[in-house]
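To close the section, here is one more complete example, presented without commentary so you can practise reading it yourself. The ligand is 5-O-phosphono-beta-D-ribofuranosylamine.
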Amino acid sequence: MSRLRTAILISGRGSNMDALIDAARAPDFPADIALVVSNRPEASGLSKAKAKGVAVAAVDHKIYAGREEFERSLQIVLETHRIEFLCLAGFMRLFTPWFIEQWRGRMLNIHPALLPAYRGLHTHERALADGVKIHGCTVHFVAPEMDEGPIVAQAAVPVLDADTPETLGARVLEQEHMIYPLALRLVASGTVQVAGNRTRGAATGSAPALVVPSAP
Ligand code: GRF
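Output:
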């Protein structure tokens, strides 16, 4: 089986990166995590990846005159490592249309909300402030607009009365660690394909609905 050579782009602690690296250790996993790159050389995720035996690189955005110069350097690093697919995992830089075009259909992102709700930052605070009963996370292909693009997988998390942004965020993060490896598996194996703004091909679960609160 030829495995898709995948790079994970991070800016911080890399817990989603960890989940992807661990999942890709399974012999039948269709992607190989060949590289982890951070735009912040001090990101703690880099040392974690190294300890797991994954090649790492830092491309420090601060030393470049602009976004494009940074991206061209990043692109050279990715080409040097013969990378075929990208997973953004807490990567805190917006890309130019040029970079997104280079990786169209070959770049996933994870977002801590049920898109298209709560694009951007502070998703858990905003969900609590709005009083939603169901929150969650999304893995999607990257499109030029921030937090947009065909959705591959979502997990819904009930909001509890006592939730704070931290407790809710922790339960969402647990689900992120489940759906990101699932989404990469589905895409890298060719099971899921993009069709317009949707993706198709994955089996769906058997639960008819998640209802919150549950009936007494
Ligand atoms: C995650 O919540 C992810 O959804 C968001 O940034 C956070 C990164 O966390 N894009 P980690 O670095 O993967 O732990």
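Once you have examined the tokens, check your reading against these statements. The CA atoms of residues 122 and 165 lie 9 Å apart. The pocket of 5-O-phosphono-beta-D-ribofuranosylamine is lined by residues 10, 12-17, 89-90, 110-112, 173, 176 (CB under 6 Å).
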